[in-house]
Specification:
- By secondary structure, the protein is of the alpha/beta class.
- The protein is built from six helices and eleven strands.
- The strands form two sheets. It has a nine-stranded mixed beta sheet. It has a two-stranded antiparallel sheet with strand order 5-6.
- Strand 1, helix 2 and strand 2 form a beta-alpha-beta unit.
- It is globular.
- It binds zinc ion.
- The site of zinc ion has 5 residues, from loops.
């Protein structure tokens, strides 16, 4: 056998491998162009952003950039994200207000059909920015109170309660525990095919969330019992909100890296991201998705 043959054979193998790679994943131009914004947070964004990147890349349909803002008190005038380059913005940011130009560009991006996924404490950000609060619909902390809008939760019959009367702070949680999550919208693309109840890992169960609460669809809740410092009601953990032509998703789980390895977190994050960007979910429910009794985990990083 000639040397030339082997050279050609290895070239052929290389091109075959390339073809197979493209056949499995979406081609670069079809991928959902995504930017994760971080740089300030009362949470460890330096730990969690790499998990979020890995989770999105594992879904093989996202092209992921990270835009890191200056630290707290830094010069925000120089921090600008070119939203025209993206289909999806992921909020892993809770800190100083962006500059007015970036605020405006972000609102236009979502209004014109961009996808927005607020992750965990992303919904703590910008308590005094009305447009942002319309997009997340429910927020917590950072001075939120009855002036921020009603509380929203589900009663024991599964009815959504919008309580505009009760005064008090927005945002609270008890100790972390591994709570069961109830699928409240089994026909919604994000939730379709997922079990009626599934177990998340030890995490914070946000409660007393409040905000403008317009046009909210509740996809997931968990019951927060009094012995976990809860209010004996079903708290929303995943909601969707239309804003102009855009789709906003407020996904409240995933306190730190450990929580990002819970399969329920991973799968919901991937599905929320695809839906926010496209309005559809094409991803299959994986075999390791948890049932009602035990959380499941993947070793990501
Ligand atoms: Zn947290």
């Amino acid at each position: 056998m000639s040397l030339k043959f082997w050279k050609n054979a290895s070239l052929f193998a290389a091109s075959l491998a390339l073809t197979l790679t493209f056949a499995v994943g979406a081609s670069a131009q079809d991928k959902i162009r995504t930017v994760i914004i971080d740089g300030q947070n009362n949470h460890n964004w330096k730990e969690t952003t790499p998990y979020l990147v890995k989770i999105l890349e594992d879904a093989k349909m996202f092209d992921v950039d990270v835009a890191t803002a200056p630290g707290k008190g830094g010069d925000m005038s120089k921090f600008n994200v070119d939203f025209s380059k993206y289909d999806l913005v992921v909020m892993n940011y809770n800190g100083d207000r962006w500059n007015p130009q970036m605020d405006k560009a972000f609102v236009e991006f979502v209004k014109n059909g961009g996808g927005f996924l607020s992750y965990h404490a992303g919904n703590n950000a910008f308590a005094n920015w009305p447009a942002f609060n319309e997009m997340i619909a429910l927020g917590g902390w950072e001075g939120r109170n009855e002036n921020s809008g009603p509380y929203l939760y589900l009663d024991n019959d599964g009815n959504v309660v919008i309580d505009a009367v009760e005064p008090g702070p927005g945002g609270d949680h008890g100790p972390q525990w591994a709570f069961p999550i109830d699928n409240r919208a089994p026909e919604h693309p994000i939730m379709k095919g997922l079990p009626k109840t599934f177990r998340h890992c030890e995490d914070e169960l946000y409660q007393r969330m409040r905000g403008p609460a317009h046009n909210v669809e509740v996809l997931m809740t968990a019951f927060a019992p009094a012995d976990k410092r809860g209010l004996n009601r079903h708290e929303p953990l995943l909601i969707t909100v239309p804003y102009g032509k855009g789709r906003c998703v407020n996904y409240m789980l995933g306190h730190a890296g450990k929580q990002c390895e819970s399969v329920s977190f991973i799968v919901l994050f991937q599905r929320c991201a695809e839906w926010a960007a496209t309005g559809a979910v094409t991803q299959e429910v994986p075999a390791d998705f948890p049932g009602a009794d035990e959380p499941t985990f993947r070793d990501l990083l």
